[in-house]
Structures
1.
Amino acid sequence: MRIAVIGGGPGGLYFAALVKRQQPDHEVTVWERNAPGDTFGFGVVLSDETLGGIEDADPELYGELAAGFARWDDIDVHLPSGQVFTSGGHGFAATSRQRLLGLLQERCRAVGVRLRFQEEAPPAAELARTHDLVVAADGVRSRTRAAAAEVYRPQLDERHCRYIWLGTDLVFDAFQFHVLRTEHGVMQLHGYPYSDAGSTVIVEMREDVWRRAGLDRLDEHESVAACEKLFADALRGHALRGNDSRWIAFTTVRNATWSDGNTVLLGDAAHTAHFSIGSGTKLAMEDAVALAGALRGSASVPEALAAYEEERRPVVASTQRAAQASLEWFENLEQYLDQPGWQLAFNLLTRSRRITHDNLRLRDPGYVADAEARFNEAVAEAGTPPMFTPFRLRGLTLRNRVVVSPMDMYSAQDGLPNDFHLVHLGSRALGGAGLVMTEMVCVAPEGRITLGCTGLWSDEQQAAWARITDFVHERSGAAIGLQLGHSGRKGATKLMWEGMDEPLAPEQAWPLVGPSPLAYRPGAGQVPAELTHEQLAALKRQFAESARRGAEAGFDLLELHCAHGYLLSSFLSPLTNRREDEYGGPLEARLRWPLEVFDAVRKVWPADRPMTVRVSATDWAEGGNDTEEAVVIAAAFAAHGADAIDVSTGQVVAFEQPAFGRSYQTPYADAIRNRVRVPVIAVGAVSSWDDVNSLLLAGRADLVALGRPHLYDPAWTLHAAAEQSWSGPGAEWPIQYRAGSRRPQTGRRQ
């Protein structure tokens, strides 16, 4: 085979060396427009996983690399207060980028790869006509990708921070995070050693902070001097140096496909991941191993490229999700500065959701024990996991932080809850949760989603609910909450198993209403009638009357359902509310009627019982509500007396495009909690009890709601006995611990 590689960075060079070593009769040529000794940046961090792949694929190269690694275990978090928190057991290895490139160039020459430096590669389309395979490792600004954008269909997401890569002769003895509060805003320094002679330093801040500080007007020399002055304490008198260093905004690169005929993208040309969770070099070298392996194990180039992408895409997607969480955390760092220092440090360490409470405890049990002790202070015994600590809302004290998320059961008749609901909610309460929530209970027959939805508009329904609340109170230590709502334009649909969101037959349906005459699914179902002022007043009375019945039925908490595109939610979103009166237009006006309903309910709901509000924090649709609007909505309800905000997302419009993933909704709860300073309930693909503990200890949530998949799993049963018999970490969930740090800890942790 004739193989052309565009780009002589680590990914391109490593692939060339591997494929030539595996098949010496291949003709492999690398084009690199820079000189052999040119390199930009300083150090490269490689994970144990990457190093293991290199060792398996090329033991000789691994041996040469390992001989010069800088290794360390600790992460130091330096806060504006002067506090320093150290966590050990993380296991890093790094080397200089120049050394890595030199070793890879030598390896290529040794196995017979042709290296063409200071020479621009011909276009990929031209090379593809004369070569069997073209590997485009030409970086984040890939010309290959741009030239065939209609094939690769790239998505380029430029982020909100500016950062600059620098170097210093100070050799750090740990991974360093320094958070600096300035008159212009928050800045941060990321630093790590890469040899016994120097360290990499990255200075990062939001673009508005960068501009206010005047850094946008400085050249490289002036920028280096400014950063040196800003972070003089972190540098301990040492100097910074640049290397063609510029302030840049990170761009997340994604592509619909990585190949075009016999041309394939590798490394940053195909995908990028923020530097705060690891290097692009790491991903590029892992790509190289996978692509070389796919060529060796496939009968043809198309088969190899398909196998390469099939293997790498899930891994890259997972990395990019973690990187997205990490970069957004740093973009929003300022919202956490009022957290206690120990919590801010824990929050930083677990920001990507890859390192969790229990994973961190495996690395450094002493660090986590210290954080737990601070979290539990005055509320729980030492060693109690965060999820098992009590939480108080107004006059209600929940025995733990676990909430059974509302789940529509579609099993009522004429709105009346029955034995099914008694067994369902009663068993969840007996399972040990702190708070069990009902499904959305509708305030009127025409407010139901389906014929199987429950209601609270009659004496008979009130008595049926009282039977359930009595059972929960008599037989468990759980509290039970009433979620109150109205379906709005999403009503009169079939039962879920008969066709979710499909409209009922006309003879079974009832007229729908909404803020505006907009159908949930245009062309499929009713168009709701726009509510008049008289109808709005009547609906408000129905909400208040159902709330009064709920209080008499014995519910401990009431949640007003303002999410998922139901009636109150549809007033909040600009995609569903097109009114031209005082209830439509800007967000302040769209909030007006939902707040009026809240006030009417709060007025009749007992003063000592808490009220929460469930919101969709993003519509997952262009032009809809997103984080900034969610913060305003949450603040408005909190100002009117909401005791907590239950933070969900989406289901407002049928054309939404959610970004699913692990704990994918929790960043919205995080933003509301730490910007509005109101307790929040987090929900959404929380996949383990470890995630629950991580969210709570990091201060991203106060309560965590779990849905059906977890609560029907015996591993998730939270028996009261477990709480009472807990005698420290590992008592109920046995864990093997190992000491984390190679560095003395005395006096470091504060």
2.
Amino acid sequence: MTQPAPTRPDAALPSGVALPPATRHPWTPALLGLILLSLIPAFVLAFQRVSYEQSQKTAALVMDYPAVTAQARRFGLEPEALLERYQRLGVNGVALYEDVVGSLVQRGEIVLKTGADLLADVPGAPVKAQNVYLRSVKPGAAEALPARYTIPTRTVQAAGQTWVEWPTDPTFLPTGPNTELLARLKAKGLTVVYRPYADDALREPGADWPDVPFILFNGDEVIGARTPELLSKINERLGTRLPALIEATPQRGLDTLIAGRGAARTFSVNPSWQNRLDPLTLASKYNLAARERSMRLLYLRPYPTIGETEALLARTTELLGRSGVRITEPVIAPFQDNTALRLLSLVGPLAALLLLGLSFPLMRLGLLVAAGSAALAFALNKLDPFASAALVAAVTFPALGLVLRRHRVTDWFLATGLSLAGVLFVSALGANKDSVLGLEPFRGVGLTLLLPLVLVGLSFLPRQDLRQTARDIYNAPIKLGDVVVMGLGLAVFALVFLRRGNTTGASVSDTEARIRQDLQDSLVRPRFKELAGHPLALVGLSGVLPGYFSALLILGGVVGQASILNTFSHFHTPLLISAQRCFLGLAAGLAAGVVIIWLVKQALRLWQTYGGRPQPEARA
């Protein structure tokens, strides 16, 4: 085999920091060619994903009907009249809960009395004080109930009236849908989301579900989740209805119902949290959920006042219109991936990882690190080839460009181009039916920020025996300024790492939260890690700072590149939304970097010349 050779001798950056160049291995052209060829199927898959996501840009504003009923009664209004008022402001759906026995009592269809009350009314009646008794007002209403449950009942006569005796309080037993109300709501053009209750006493749960497009289960598990036979029946009785997948609320057994059918991603806000948010802030969250997290059912509850609720609906409708999300009944089709194209795309990340290892100044170290990275990716993803290769792409491409070249400002464009190539591989290999729904999270998100830093940092090691490098590091004199700089660097990285994702270990200030909201209401908000990381890379590559600062800034720039891939690892976010966020960050980062380089040059010139006396002119 031809021996690899460095492209040129170790070069010192203008700052005086010597960073060894990459090794130009004879396989480099072939590996780059494989990456380019593998980009073709990855691009096709990305195009198919965009086409799918564009066809799904619809959402329903679903109002909780019991909450509307409670609000209407507080203000002396009819619930359906108040709902029509909200419908004019954009509401096009309603969540209708299954009736319970208590609902029939409230509507006057049956009478419920405890045995003690019945004995007080009819002394000597053949009833038991501890039992509960039902009597029909609507003919046959009470007599039809026992057949629904496994609870033993009997019929008794008291004062010439027929009562059904229950050994337990049946108030909260589910009785099926309110068909009359359901028909009226559907006649108004509303999309009905049905919410059935689970109860072990039901003989045939799901047998009387109405003809509605969506089923939203209550609690932390679906009906039948604890019994495989019953879950199979529920899956069959679900039919063409789609289950609702509630954001951040996993429900046991839901994955069985979703398989082969899909689901409606649903966003709702806890009532106690909602009451701490003003209507405009809450509207922004609903818009963000529909635009950037593919939520198809936006589950709404009214505020304590009608005015606040109307403000919420008006603002939500306005923001959804700006975002291009149509308010209508969603027609949801599951995302279909292409296995053959994914297999062809899989070649690219593996070739890139091998190229990365071969390009290390210390090639044996590079190959060892590349093999360890691949092993870690496959272990985290339980040997799933597509998910593992997606993680390989996410950690390799942000580092590859800055390993190959990092001695001039223009090298930032190479690094960015390779990161964008990695985006196509991450999407092609990671996006499938479950990950697009958010059911299958990207495993190794933390590694996408950490491992590229490690890879680039190890490539800084000089081309010499590692034992000598260790001795040089140990014997290097450390100044107080070095300690301060390293401490600041670690603190910044810790902050970036803690604040990854939507739920983080670090808080966001009120000012930053307001800026974020204003940005996301007007455009897709770029990520802070990219706004900071790209300028750092540009300043570091320019070599305008003395000492080892340039190398540290290049490492900071790796975070910006890694953030690009991290952004696209959220597969429930539409690809075009992630692309907008990415390119806004690139444009802002490039502009900021150019300005900062000029400012640093001017500051250094002023530092070096301020207070100095002008040199006398030399005479011949």
3.
Amino acid sequence: MTTTEARPAHASEDEQTPWLLRDPIRTGFLAIMALMVAVRFNILRDSFFITDDFMLQSRAVEHELGWDYLTRVHTGHFEPIGFGFMWVLTKLAPWNWTVAMLAMLVAQVLVAVLVWRMLTRLFGRRALILVPFALYCLTPLTMPAFTWLSAAIIWLPLTAALAGGIANHVAYLRSGRWEDAVWTIFWYCFGLASFEKIVIFLPFIAVLSLAVSPTVRLTARDILRLLRRTWLVWVGYAVASAAYLVIYLDGSSRAEASANLEVPSLGQLTDFVYLSLFRTMIPGALGGPWDWQAASYAGAMVNSPRFFDWACWIVFAAVVIVSFLTRRRIGRAWLALLVYLGGSIAALAVGRVAYSGPLAALETRYLADAIVPLVVVVGMCLMALENETDAWLPQARRWLTAIPQQTLVWTSGVACAVWLALALHSANGYASFSAANPYKEFVETTRQSLATLPADAQIFDTPIPVDLLGPLFMEFNTVSRFVAPVATAEQREALATRETFTEPLVLAPDGTFQPLEVDGFSSPPPFEGLCGWQPEDGQVSVPLTDTAYEWPWAVRVGYLANGPATGTIHLGEDSQEVEFTEGLGEVFVPLVGGGSEIVIDGLAPDAGLCFGDAQVGTPRPAPPE
């Protein structure tokens, strides 16, 4: 018998069938993933770093990768995984948007694979899981969280922890194997290292356990039996939570840690809940928002017209009602989702609403992680669980029999197409805001200008001359901290230690470093020649034409010296020792003070110095000569 004759007939048919057609489920999975990557890439390629991205890179370059850096609680957030990523990014590719973009895309693909794994664990490998999977991959709800670097480093790991944790928790409920419990606890710990919001996973997974256990009745006996059978995972959750609390409190007690926690008023809370659920979550689940409005200088928040929101409420209410009329135990799934949303809203209300106001609810990133519980519920509305034999009520069977198969297929196809069209429309709208970053050219010019400076260049530290970060970021809104990731070690050292300047440079609004001049309060013209004020008994006072108020100022003193000398410049209570070089020169110092005169003392009696003019004011780029 020949080899051809021995080969089964179906093997030859499989080889002749195109690879994409051999497994339609696999093909659908790949098509959805490809569309997700294409959409997110087209948003990311025109985006750039914003606000916290620069602060986190500056902080990373200033620290060694160690326990203190990774576990420091920053503005209330505990995010060792995010801090670790920012440290690696800053060391390997500071201010490199291409590398950051590719990292975010790869992370989104990996998390999507975890969501697919979760769905197959829950429902088995069937064609219908492509629907909730597409909902996860293409929903606009996650776009702001997954395309802004500072948000992505916490929301992507958190989403991965939810998907991985649900998958292994369900596997443990079914198998009772300790290996599944260990993996479940691992994902919970992974979430704890990502974002403190993971703690709401515990009440959510407790309710979801009942939703995915169809044989467990809602009686005290059955629930206690389930707890005894699965005690290992609950003990693991408790131990991990206790350890996390100790580490979190330790990180909070260290420098740079602050948490803005304040209970909002009842009116603020009511508005926040309404906006979160009815203007953000529900329209987002159905492909919205229809439109966006600017948030920060390169982000956006929900701004849908009311008719769109109303239509979404009607559709969502219909879905919920139909699910209760057709699906057994679906109330448990909806309750699990409500528990997760309730925990999310409560956490955000305490951490954001009292300071940012209820409109913070219109930023979809705050509910991005809720997409994972949502796709679980959507899956349960469409399919029976893998071990569920009585999922559907008699009414569902009667309706399914009454509706022609062709009508059902066409209706489902149209609904999916409409949802996809809405989601792509929303993505396109968001992209227009994300791509409108006005400071990309400033950042790139700053990098290039810094790289061309001579080794001995004297950079005078000032606030960043454009609204890239703003006063809210305090010391990180200074040039020295801003350029640290792309500066050489020598430049960082000089920026941190230099206290006096003879040829200072200042960062201009166009991103170039230019000679500095002091704009503010000046001394009157000298009486004659270059020397208006000469020291007596080692001290001289140079008057100002007006009184400078207390403020961080740049102080310039012009002088003529017969030889090198030292002295101390005073402005109010602040002072700085300086060196005067031989000949006609000038010296600049930053001082925090005020008054109507500049005092120079500590001069040697034979210093041979005189002073011609002085200024106290704001440092700015000198106009071209």
4.
Amino acid sequence: MKKLLSFILVSLIISSLGFAQRNIKKPNVIIIMTDDQGNNLGCLGNPWLKTPNIDKFVNESVQLTNFHQAIMCTPSRTAMMTGKYSLRTGAWRTSVGRSNMRTEEVTIAEVFKENGYATGQFGKWHLGDTWPFRAQDQGFEETVNFKCGGISQISDYWGNDYFDDTYYHNGELKQYKGYCTDVFFNETIRYVNECNEEEKPFMIYLALNVAHLPAIVAEEYSKPWIEKGHPQKQAIYYGMISNLDENMGRLMSSLEEQGIKDNTIIVFTTDDGTAGYAAQFNENEWPTEQGFNMGQRGGKGSPYEGGHRLFSFFHFPNGQFNTNEVDDLTSVMDIFPTVMDICDVKTTQKLDQDGLSFKQALYGQPIVGNDGRQLFLVKLNPNQDVLFKRNKYCVIDGDWRWVSRSELYNVKDDRAQKNNLADKYPDRVKAMDDALLAWLDKNAADRETPVRFVLGDEQHPIISLTTQDLWEKSVFSQGHVQKLESGKGPWKVSFMNDGRYKVTLSRYPLYTRLAFNANTKGKNSNEFKANKAKLTIGKNTYEKEIEATDTHVTFKVDVKAGDTDLETWIYSTENITIPSYFVDVEYIK
């Protein structure tokens, strides 16, 4: 009876806080997601990193100690944006045409915008580079971002190198001064100031490039680590996090100066495990003295704990939380329903989420619906059966982990996942594997249904495609273009209208004015003398000759509305064949 009365009392307090929030200014929301950082923070035990500003932030926050991201960055981001498993949204890989999120998905930005919030997105998006998949098409009113999955990848502005780069402000190119992390914090602070002056609540998604490849930071940040004997790449990686720490301090000071720090919810997490170049280990080797991962096995892309069990902190002084840690199982899918719950926002749209609100846990109470909950993390290969042997899986059930359908671990006793217990617990293995198969049957059936690029809209007549999104084999970095990497497969497209289209093929972005034959890698790179281009749209094929100085080849073709494939080839006198890395499709009626 005492426990029941205690639960009722806490529930009434929580409810009253929700009602109180209706009578004061609505809470602001900032969701900060870094990239490939793993658990590299001083407060989490990294013996080399010093992150005093983040440590201070953490001391004022609730830590989710059993929080799980997806195994790759796009799936983590779409799960956060929708509260769903990524396989249900179309955006379940980082490339190969599977990173466009379906437009019918209801995003956290759309819900908060519906409730009178200003919405801003700064940094990485990676859920679609073209209309109607961009951040500004999915509920964000103000955006400053780069394309693709990282700065210097193929659809990012050509030549960006983390310093004084050109990004897309609401879809328009604009150059920004300074280091990339500084810029995205600058834009966030600017937007916060503007919203606060207008007395309008805001919901911001600050998705940082740190600490993604290529590893670049000013020498002042990396030099201290080099002097301590760290390998150069690891020193640069730690330097990037040191810079992040400075910026976190700037953001928190700005919020405090404006008097809104206590009424701002800040969620701080990262999208997946540590990248191998920084951690100095892989999923088949346990952490060594060269790298840090909280004693967990594996890093980025791994189904082991180090690939997905990651830091997440929840900061909201006005929430008056009565705990410092939540040990319950939580997921990136839970962020959307939780902040929605705490902010007491409503929507008329159908959400159908897989995530749960963990608001109750912030007050020391059980999460409703979490008892017996399982999580399913997968890294599937495109164009393969769901049970393809190179796929990666992790089923989470309490302290148990069923990994890649062959290994069973109890992470309470074996956090490093050294002791495979599959032979000792055959009944548990069968139950967890059956659960995985049932989950795949339910959620993976539509994974290969393309989220097609939309061509021929009168309001958005020009759509730019890159080989990041080839359906069979992507070419996704600017360095790959320089090295003449060969991609494979078509773009999956949908023409909205019958009519005439201008299709322009080029090796480099048109704004660079570089010829097909231009050598941008130096004297040791391969010669490439392009002499012919081929385009197919559905069953129709078109060819043109390429001259030595041509920067592009243009085809004007008549197309019928509907779904189809678009594919390209560029041939050379050296018998090298590449796809056209860049394709612009313009509807000219």
